[in-house]
Amino acid sequence: MADFNKILDAGDVDGGIINVVVEIPTGSSHKIEWNRELAVFELDRIDPQIFAKPCNYGFIPQTLDEDGDELDALIITEQPLPTGIFLKAKVIGVMKFVDDGEVDDKIVVVPADDRDTGNAYNSLEDLPKQLINQLQFHFSHYKDLKKAGTTVVESWGDVAEAKEVIKESIQRWKDL
């Protein structure tokens, strides 16, 4: 398996097109994570089915969020994407998120070439409000059966704010 942090970088952040690696497909309750030390995907846990992911979930290579992991991405597509692929993704916003007291932001992206939607999604405002509500509910409650109240969606940010979060995460990676 390829070491995504060695063969990919974050992409063209200023241009809004970044590289994203898929960890968890939409609808899965398997918490699959990239193990940076071993350069493999690892099943961390199985969450209750009621908390299956409402969207694809992945990471941006050569980034480091404040929680010590690669910066997370929420990948919006109509169909689930398989674990282990990467895509060129258009940045459309950021979900400002805290998990157990640690900043764990999520960059919201869509495929850079989405002919199914006609590339209709360019900002969070373009997404269905119900999807934003579902994402907020999921990330506010997915740990409730184990550690209730430990996850908080603090706010949503626009493309400019998302790019700043990515740039800060790239710098943390470089400072490793």
TrEMBL record:
GO CC annotations on file: cytoplasm
Gene3D superfamilies: Inorganic pyrophosphatase
Localization: Cytoplasm
EC number: 3.6.1.1
Record keywords: Cytoplasm, Hydrolase, Magnesium, Metal-binding
InterPro entries named in the record: Pyrophosphatase, Pyrophosphatase_sf
Binding site for Mg(2+) 1: D67, D72, D104
Signal peptide: none
The protein's name: Inorganic pyrophosphatase
Recorded name of the encoding gene: ppa
